[in-house]
Amino acid sequence: LVWYMVWDDEMSARRFAAGAGVRLAALARAGYRTMVETVGAVAVRVMIAPVGWVRWSSPPLLTHSP
Questions:
Q1: Separation CA 11–CA 36 (nearest Å)
Q2: Residue 7 and residue 12: Cα distance in Å, rounded?
Q3: Rounded to whole angstroms, how far apart are CA atoms 53 and 39?
Q4: Coil, strand or helix: which one is 17?
């Protein structure tokens, strides 16, 4: 799972990452790794994938299409 959330402002993104994001990242799943991080000023990326997933170092990027 790679999930991007784009918030209205930087404060909202940071609040999610510091609150729900921290709790989500703390949930242990055998064989899985979870990462929650801010991306830019207003986006948060949540990644939950097997420990051996080859894209950990280069996850899919957030793009906008009209």
A1: 16
A2: 6
A3: 20
A4: helix
Q: Are 41 and 62 in contact (CB under 8 A)?
A: no
The single-letter DSSP state of residue 59 is P
Q: How far apart are CA 53 and CA 61, in angstroms?
A: 16
Mean pLDDT by 10 residues, the chain (66 residues): 94 95 92 93 94 92 68
Q: What is the pLDDT of residue 65?
A: 53
Q: Which amino acid makes up residue 10?
A: E
Give 48-52 contacts, CB < 8 A, sequence gap 24+: 48/1, 49/1, 49/2
In this structure, what token pair is assigned to residue 65? 């299409």
